[in-house]
Design a protein that fits this description.
The chain is mostly beta strands. The chain has a domain at about 10-50. About 0% of the residues lie in helices and about 30% in strands. The strands form three sheets. The protein has a four-stranded mixed sheet with strand order 1-2-3-4, with no helix packed on it. The chain has a four-stranded mixed sheet with strand order 5-6-7-8, with no helix packed on it.
Length: about 140
């Protein structure tokens, strides 16, 4: 007989778990379509987000419905500025210049360069653009 294993979960937009209600290593889930993610409590007692980058004009957790703050290293693709940004622990910083998606896999790029559109992130491998993040299919 199968047993269902359920995490603490929420579908509320921008809701993150409260570290005071979590044990070390515990996983919690937010399944909201735009701000969801999997979260765990690390050995420092901090809540860490695991999952894809939020894609929107509004920063993740800008209006928290649960725990305030973001996870160090969390990514956000700001559609208002077309910049990929990362939370450094105190603020959102741009990871480089503006990034736009290539139109073909053979478009020129610099090795390791990251580009994106509203659907995918891409990385230039040195000879071609490869989709990474939501879809790992190569053109």
């Amino acid at each position: 007989m199968a047993t269902n294993f359920l995490l603490k979960r929420s579908g509320t937009s921008n809701k993150r778990p409260d570290p005071a209600s979590m044990t070390l290593g515990e996983l919690d889930l937010n399944y909201d379509a735009t701000t969801g993610g999997v979260f765990y409590k690390d050995s420092n007692g901090d809540v860490v987000k695991v999952g894809s980058a939020q894609v929107s004009a509004t920063a993740p957790n800008a209006t928290p419905a649960g725990s305030a703050g973001n996870s160090k290293g969390e990514f956000w693709y700001d559609t208002g500025t077309s910049f990929l940004k990362m939370w450094n622990g105190t603020s959102w910083i741009s990871t480089g210049g503006q990034v736009t998606a290539p139109t073909a896999s053979t478009d020129a790029g610099a090795q390791g360069q990251i580009a994106s559109n509203a659907t995918y992130f891409y990385m230039y491998t040195g000879s071609r653009w490869q989709r990474v993040a939501w879809d790992t299919t190569v053109w």
